[in-house]
Prior knowledge:
The chain is an alpha+beta fold. 23% of the residues lie in helices and 40% in strands. The protein is globular. Its EC number is 5.1.99.1. This is Methylmalonyl-CoA epimerase.
Amino acid sequence: MLNKLEHVGIAVKDLAVASQLYQSLLGVESYKQEEVASENVMTEFFKVGDTKIELLAASNEKSTILKFIEKKGEGIHHLAFEVDDIYVEMERLKKEGFILLNDEPKKGADNKLICFVHPRSSNGVLIELCQEIT
């Protein structure tokens, strides 16, 4: 079961520029910057109340974020939902006919296990499942 919207991922060309913009917009500083080497991405997180914003910038030319920006421009990249058990949720979604982008969860940013649901099976929206690593 999806518990809550965990964060909104936003693809950006320049993390430093976007970080300044969101710091001014939200009135808070980021609480974490982290590289996710497996995804070829640099991330930066902001939190306002219970809402998190994750800025995503390509760390190299192999990054899917770079490809996303080239195709669609900067903007909302994905919606991430918190789950209690990512394995159970992945199995449930597969049985419901959703296409998952990975067969096993992988380590993501902000101490999470993650899995993505292909936008083709969710009305064009990339959905991330995330579970806190304990």
